[in-house]
Amino acid sequence: MPDWRAVILLATVLALAGWWFYRNYTVTLQSPVRLHWQSPIVVAQRLTSGGALEAQADQSGKGLSAWQEYACRKFGPDCRLALAIQRAENPQGKCEIYHYNTDGSLDWGYFQINTVHLQRPGLNLRDLLDCQANIDFAYQLYREKGGFSPWSTYKNGRYKLFMR
Questions:
Q1: Is the dihedral of CA 80, 82, 85, 89 positive or negative?
Q2: Which pTM value belongs to this model?
Q3: Which one, of 140, 139, 133, 141, lies nearest residue 36 by Cα?
Q4: In the chain, which ranges are continuous DSSP H helix?
Q5: How far apart (Å, rounded) are the C-alpha atoms in residues 77 and 15?
Q6: What is the pLDDT of residues 31-78, one digit of tens each?
Q7: Proportion of the chain in helix, strand, coil states, percent, rounded to 5
């Protein structure tokens, strides 16, 4: 016969642990197969900064994905604008995605980095399809250019459709 006090205590501890995890972390599912095997789950600590909360509000309160959380940590105060540009460029939020441009170039990955940047030493196509590397390179471009001018959706204002 089970000791009901122990069962209730265990259930309470599990519920509190689940609540704590939910409040502090976000979980995003991704394809387990890419150009190499990868984990099908990405876990990232939740951010409660103003930019992250505003970006979440821009998504009608839908929680930020683990990659959005990572981008917010990179872009800091410009998190909201960076995520609006990312959603304007890549509404599905996929890492392994590309888009053909009328000039014959391609935009790759999470932030839709143009293939013209493949001329840089040490950067290859595989990097642009890796979500973390794509976000890191997007942040590098942002810092080099002093803002979001490399993204067409910033220049044409389309990103504003993704901000409330």
A1: negative
A2: 0.75
A3: 133
A4: 4-24, 50-58, 66-75, 79-89, 125-129, 131-145, 152-155
A5: 34
A6: 765 555 667 777 777 777 777 888 888 888 788 898 999 999 999 999
A7: 55, 10, 35
